[in-house]
Amino acid sequence: MSSEKTTADATARLSGAAFWGHDGKALADFYAAALGWKVTQTYGDTAAMISDGTTGYVFYTAKDFRAPDWPADELVFHLELACDDVAATEELLLSLGATKPDHQPGGERWTVLLDPSGQPFCISARG
């Protein structure tokens, strides 16, 4: 028997991520509604987790949070959400508190929105 690990044994699966904003619980509520997920746990008044049962995202309140001045600031990361009906999804996300900046570099391929904490994310058609 060999004790060598294969590459497949050593790879990992993303099980979650953490995000900071001016109101972690409100941000968790926004993304839970956007993704059709549930808020599964809260941590006092400052954080909440959402999950689809396999992946979890935790949203924290950061008292000194400052949203990026996009597009002037480079982004550390952003989320890409795929949907079946981009127009209906955009309408839903705007009703949940997202905003749509004037700068839209994706043309017809994707739409940039800002979440309630001012962080950019994109929506596009599945596939």
Automatic annotation (TrEMBL):
Protein name: VOC domain-containing protein
Organism for this UniProt entry: Streptomyces gilvosporeus
UniProt cross-references to Pfam families, sorted A to Z: Glyoxalase_6
Annotated ranges, domain VOC: 13-126
Gene3D superfamilies: 2,3-Dihydroxybiphenyl 1,2-Dioxygenase, domain 1 (3.10.180.10)
InterPro entries hit by this protein: Glyas_Bleomycin-R_OHBP_Dase (IPR029068), Glyoxalase_6 (IPR041581), VOC_core (IPR037523)
Organism lineage string: Bacteria, Bacillati, Actinomycetota, Actinomycetes, Kitasatosporales
